[in-house]
Each structure stands twice: as structure tokens, then as C-alpha cells.
Amino acid sequence: MGEFSQPARVADPGEGISVEELVLAARNHGMPLEALRYDLTPPGLHYLLIHYDIPALDTRTWRLTVGGRVGQPLTLDLDQLRRRPSKTVRVTMECAGNGRARLTPRPVSQPWLVEAVGTAEWTGVPLPDVLDEAGLDPSAVDVVFTGADHGVERGVEQDYQRSLSIDDATRPEMLLAYEMNGTPLLPQHGYPLRLIAPGWYGMAHVKWLRDISVVDARFTGYQQAVAYRLRRSADEPGEPVTRIRPRALLIPPGYPDFMSRTRIVRPGDHLLEGRAWSGQAPLTAVEVSTDGGLTWQPATMAEPGDHRWAWQRFTFPWRATPGQHTLSARAHDANRQTQPAEPAWNQGGFANNAIQRIRAVCLS
Fold first, then answer.
1. What is the β-pairing status of strands 263-265 and 358-362?
2. What order do you get walking across the sheet with 268-277 strand by strand?
3. How far is Cα 80 from Cα 212, in angstroms, rounded to an integer?
4. 3-state SS, residue 59
5. In whole angstroms, what separates CA 307 from the centre of its chain?
6. Interval 324-350: pLDDT, tens
7. Which domains does the chain have, with CATH numbers?
8. Which of 15, 184, 188, 339 could potentially form a cystine with 330 if both were Cys, beta carbons 3.0 to 4.6 Å apart?
9. By percentage, how much of the chain surpasses pLDDT 70?
10. What is the C-alpha to C-alpha distance for residues 89 and 307, in angstroms, rounded to an integer?
């Protein structure tokens, strides 16, 4: 790899959060964990990651083009998309870097803890319908999605671009969304149109979508081949970041200390609750620990209903006694994956689904 094609650097031992990382943290935000109480995250509380700038797009001139290895290239405006048969999908979306700031050494980038997540109902046109209308050529391999956001990463000037394989792009849940929770997309969430790729980490859900191009080879753009890879060192190619690993998060009980966020609870019975999800396979169980992970007990899970791609609520009764407690939850899915006690380190700080720990002090 050349100098500018390498992933972001790793912090030196003892190095604190930089001004540049604080700038990123001010532009982007996580979901307050108390918002886990909502089935659908209000748009202003949904996590947000913006790679470059929010583009200023005018729907009077904005168009979506569909081309490349297709039989009938398309150019569609927003009204034409909205007149087509629509679909609504409830999706839990999580940033691939969620948990990055908990790693040691810390990859230098957006310093997420565990709050980079949210769930919304997205309405739009099924992507397979648009690709079918365009007519995929037999030589088609990948579908490349280009956003209107433009910037520089590691010296590479680029539009934000990601791809999906033909098999993934033609899955029935894939969506070209123009509404979030029943209203038009907000500017920061991709207005006027974005890709929704249920089950995938957030980097795949291309915002401000302006072009879809079908290509006859694997796409090797920066965000595909360099940025979102699981690698132990900067000089190895690594594995691609794809689908969301299982995770469970508890709503912090009681009330917080302002600076430390330590929770203060009263003695007695409490109903702990939270949400769990996996983009790789349906959930099979959630467990809760109230003693720092020494013992685990099964939580009660709500049925997913028709919402395969959305989080599930879980509850657990806890009798708090005076003293200090560490509360955690962990999710298991049908692929026999569960959350690890400690994170698996990688150069970019991606896909860290280590269990959450909440420090709670029960007052006598």
C-alpha cells in the first residue's frame, strides 16, 4: 500500500483524544442509551455519522441515474420514485466503528463508545425492482452506489462510494429510501434518497444517493478496499466489514452522576430492560449479569414479529442491594455467535461487539 492508501493510525500509548477527533465527535453523535426505550428511535436521537459535508441538494434538479452493465439505463427524479410501489422496513442500523474508543491501543477516528446505533422505519422503492427494470447484464458482478458527499481521506479525493454484490443487492429487503419514520429524510440522514441495506453496518447505507452503477468486476474503491477492513496491521489486506455482529445494550437504570455517568439506584426491585440485535442471524437468547460477568441469567425477550432486521426488547428483574454493581447483557444468535467479554482488536476499530458494562451504585 502507498502512504495515502493505508488506514487511519493507532494512538500512541497514553495519547488522549485529539482536537481533530473532538471535531468529529461534535459533528456526529450517538444515541443516548435512555432512547433504547423507544421501538423506533426519533430521528434527532438516531446515531449519525457524516464522512464529509452534508450536501445541499435541490430536488428540482436532483436525479438518480442507474447505468453500467444494464439493458436500459434509467434517470429518475424523486416524484417518479415516490409514484412507484413502495415498501417500509424497520431496520436497526449500527456504525461499524461502534465501540472503537474502548479499544487499546485506540484507532484514531470518530471516538464511539457504544451509542452509535438507532432503529427506524424506512420507506421507499425496493432496490431489486429498480435493478430488474434496468435489466442486469449477465456479466454483472457488483452494484456501486455513489453519494453526493465529497471529500478527502488519507489523501484520496473521492465521492463516498460503496458496493454490494449482485446477490446482496437483489435481496428483497434492500431499499432506496426517501422517508424515515413516515416523514421525508432529514438532510443529515441522506435527503432526498439513500440506500438501506438491512443487516449491514452503517457504512453500506449510502446517503444522498445520486448514482447506481452495475459493474462487471469487484469494486475496489477506497471505502470498499481500504477503509472498512478488519486487519491486525496496516500492511495486510484484511477481511471486509459486512454484517452486524450480535449486540445487547441495557438502558442504564436509576439516575446518573453528571461526569462519570455512574448510575445511582435505590435498594429494591428494578426491571432492567434493553434491546438486542444481530444482522447476521436471528437472535436466540439474551442473558444479563449483575455481578460483573461472573454469572449470567436468561432475560425475557419480546417476539420479533415481522421485524427481522430490527432490535428486540428484553427485560430482566433485578433486586438491588446496597453496594456497587456492574450490569451487563449479551446476545446470542442462530449462527452460535455471542458477544465476547473483551473486544477483538483491529486497526480500524471496527465491529467491536464486546459486552457493555454499566457501573451502578445502590444507596442504602
1. parallel
2. 247-250, 268-277, 312-320, 300-301
3. 16
4. coil
5. 17
6. 999 999 999 999 999 999 999 999 999
7. 3-240 (3.90.420.10), 247-362 (2.60.40.650)
8. 339
9. 98
10. 8
Name, in order, each residue with C-beta under 8 angstroms of 350's C-beta and a sequence gap of 6 or more: 96, 97, 100, 201, 228, 229, 230, 241
Please state the pTM of the whole predicted model.
Answer: 0.96
- Whether 181 and 40 have beta carbons less than 8 Å apart is answered as yes
Q: What is the DSSP letter of 107?
A: B
Number of residues in the chain = 364
Residue 126 near residue 142 (C-beta atoms within 8 A): no
Give tens-digit pLDDT for 38-56.
Answer: 999 999 999 999 999 999 9
CA distances from 362 to 229, 274, 282, 322 (A): 42, 20, 35, 5
Distances (CA, A) of 162 to 171, 224, 303, 323: 17, 6, 33, 49
Which amino acid, 68? G
Query: What stretch of H or E contains 317?
Result: strand 312-320
Instruction: Find the angle CA(335)-CA(129)-CA(201) to the nearest 5 degrees.
Output: 35
Please say if the pLDDT value at position 25 is more than 70: yes
User: Is the model's pLDDT at 5 over the cut of 90?
Assistant: no
Tens of pLDDT along 76-120? 999 999 999 999 999 999 999 999 999 999 999 999 999 999 999
What is residue 22's three-state secondary structure? helix
Is residue 22 exposed (0-12), middle (13-18) or buried (19+ Cβ within 10 Å)? exposed
Looking at residue 178, its pLDDT comes to: 98
Amino acid identity, position 182: G
